[in-house]
Design a protein that fits this description.
This protein is of the alpha+beta class and 105 residues long. The chain has helices at 2-32, 88-104, and strands at 36-45, 48-55, 58-64, 69-75. Strands 1-2-3-4 form a 4-stranded antiparallel sheet, with no helix packed on it. The relative contact order is 0.07.
Length: 105
């Protein structure tokens, strides 16, 4: 009787572990090969704003409200130049270099 409970607990633990691993792998695959990314979002009020999405080689400008989402404009590849947004890592490096310079003085 106890052996049956142990066997059932091990099987349940294994199934839960498989679900977690598959979910992790799918999330990682989605982030790496995702076809869509949010370039920018500018809010204009509660639940209102304009979003720029990059899908493939096109940039879609969308008007977003709490009830609706409308396509405002599509930019083809090369038609719109996007400035590179500083990532967290580069901002952190700048902060560290400033801090090191202050400590040397």
């Amino acid at each position: 009787m106890t052996g049956t409970y142990i066997q059932m607990a091990v099987a349940l633990t294994f199934v839960i572990f498989l679900i977690i691993v598959v979910g992790f792998l799918l999330k990682k695959k989605q982030n790496r090969y995702g076809l869509m990314s949010v370039v920018s979002y500018q809010p204009f009020g509660p639940k209102k704003g304009v979003a720029a999405l990059k899908i493939g080689n096109e940039i879609l400008i969308l008007g977003v409200t709490s009830n609706d989402m409308r396509l405002l404009r599509i930019f083809k590849d090369g038609e719109l130049e996007l400035k590179e947004i500083e990532g967290f890592q580069s901002k952190l490096e700048k902060f560290r270099s400033i801090r090191v310079q202050r400590n040397w003085k």
